[in-house]
């Protein structure tokens, strides 16, 4: 009698869970960015780029008039606000972040581009110490106060970005104080990246960029000095505020970057 042949067994696929069940819904909340120095130059360019990317932006400066003009240039809207504050003043800095926190809630990124370099370029033998104090107060102690009062409002993995500069790496005669302060900002960046983790802390070091600060530094000789430097740089031109805005956005958005000084200088360190 022939052996019986078992009937074929159909393979039944295991039920598959819908992909949507394991993938979280995307976060559509706009990034909340505070830009201290956002009324002109690099800070204003960053505000423009951030708004174009859908962010909620607060620009900060000492002059209400300049802030109002910046708001006009940026087109206003419900994702832009301006707060007048002086970050060399501890009460002002505390008020700034209390105000922003009450208005927008948690903050994702804080960027500092402001500095008072008036009179900071002088020969050391005739250096005006008051000019040096203004630079230290605005660029170094301002950064310290910003970190002190911004940190409690920042999201985990959010960022603080300072602005140092090429003078720390290619100092020039008459620029000793500027070199010292920019170098100090790099050290502050490294230390705060450890102290405030998982908040990320970085610094951007621009080279020569065509911004209004050059009117203060060089006066009527501004264009001649910028043209001469452009001929020396490997990229063949001076930086623009939007060059720096792109670099700042990279530091803000790459969540694996902290304790880093990013050089956006057109190769200036090599010439």
From TrEMBL:
Keywords: Oxidoreductase. InterPro entries: KR_dom, NAD(P)-bd_dom_sf, SDR_DHRS6-like, SDR_fam. Residues 1-25 are annotated as: Disordered. SUPFAM superfamilies: NAD(P)-binding Rossmann-fold domains (SSF51735). Residues 31-211 form the Ketoreductase domain. Belongs to the short-chain dehydrogenases/reductases (SDR) family. The lineage of its organism: Bacteria, Bacillati, Actinomycetota, Actinomycetes, Kitasatosporales. Coiled coil: none annotated. This is SDR family oxidoreductase. It comes from Streptomyces lutosisoli. SMART domains: PKS_KR.
């Amino acid at each position: 009698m022939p052996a019986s042949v078992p009937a074929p067994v159909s393979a039944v696929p295991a039920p598959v869970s819908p992909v949507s069940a394991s993938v979280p819904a995307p976060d559509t909340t706009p990034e909340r960015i505070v830009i201290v120095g956002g009324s002109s130059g690099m800070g204003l360019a960053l505000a423009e780029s951030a708004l174009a990317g859908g962010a909620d932006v607060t620009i900060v400066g000492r002059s209400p008039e300049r802030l109002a003009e910046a708001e006009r240039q940026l087109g206003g809207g419900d994702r832009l606000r301006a707060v007048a504050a002086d970050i060399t003043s501890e009460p002002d800095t505390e008020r700034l972040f209390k105000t922003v926190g009450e208005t927008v809630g948690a903050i994702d990124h804080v960027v500092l581009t402001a500095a008072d370099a008036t009179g900071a370029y002088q020969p050391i033998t005739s250096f005006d110490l008051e000019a040096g104090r203004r630079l230290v107060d605005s660029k170094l102690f301002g950064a310290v106060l910003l970190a002190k009062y911004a940190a409690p409002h920042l999201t985990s993995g959010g960022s603080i970005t300072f602005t140092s500069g090429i003078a720390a790496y290619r100092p020039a005669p008459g620029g000793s104080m500027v070199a010292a302060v920019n170098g100090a900002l790099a050290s502050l960046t490294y230390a705060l990246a450890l102290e405030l983790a998982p908040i990320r802390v970085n610094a951007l070091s621009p080279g020569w960029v065509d911004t209004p600060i050059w009117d203060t530094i060089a006066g009527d000789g501004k264009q001649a000095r910028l043209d001469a430097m452009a001929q020396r740089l490997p990229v063949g031109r001076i930086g623009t505020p939007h060059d720096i805005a792109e670099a700042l956005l990279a530091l803000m958005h790459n969540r694996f970057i902290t304790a880093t000084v990013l050089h956006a200088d057109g190769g200036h360190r090599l010439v």
